[in-house]
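Question (not urgent): is this output format expected?
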Amino acid sequence: MGLRRGYNLRESLTHVVQGLLMGAADIIPGVSGGTIAFIVGIYPRLIAAISHGFSMLTSLVKGRLGEMRRHGARLEWGLVLPLAAGIGAALLVGAKVIPTLLETRPHETLGLFLGLVAGSVGVPWKRIGRRNMSVLCMLVGTCAAAFFLTGIPVSGDTLEPSGIRVFASAATAICAMILPGVSGAFLLKAMGMYEVTLHALNDGNIGYIALFAAGAITGLGLFSRLLNHLLRQHADLTMAALVGLMIGALRALWPWQTAEHALRMPGEGEPFWMVVLLAAAGFAFITILTRQANRMGRQETDGP
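Got this back:
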């Protein structure tokens, strides 16, 4: 019995560390928590746990307690709880560090984020099986749409976004957890909701956090089924849309912009070579991560 408890403790600590890595990835635009889960070998278990967890909540809302207990029995709590603890701890630490970097070193920080996202574009691109004209049109169209939308000046006070905007942003960004290579933090950055969400988390804004969590849960439940359907029935077009969105939305991470989101070149006295160096480092880091993920995927496919 003692050996079993020791094994469970080691396993739980391992999942906490995995959660720390995933949480650190999720809070940085360009790095996907899904990619980290894939690399450490828990991605299929995580997706299954998300499915059972949402089914359990749905059964609870419908008042089907017996069905809820059945889904709860199938949920891998030994994975979910320590993983959630690690993710939560990483998010809390990151929420204190990243806003400071964005305020004190905005160009360098955005340069790093730009390299991370640019390096991630290859993940969905390599998943496209047939690169025909339909795929190309989808890629170009979504790229143009994302480029245009991220260039629109944000109206109103971004420090106090509406509840609908908070809910919708969370519901959209959470979808990135399901797809390795797509960053939820990047989607928040592109929608102009990244900094305000970090500040709310850092300040312990319970109302904002609760509304954001509600949007995330709703989006995860609804969009995960839609994405699974699209990936089964229209995989190439779905991946092409993701590639286009990621490329077009890179505009949101360009380090030199006016207050109206117009792109410009570096001004006198502004850092340039350090931004380029950090962008290259971010690109290289993601390239190494994705290669490791691909290697893990081949190993799982080939079997022992």
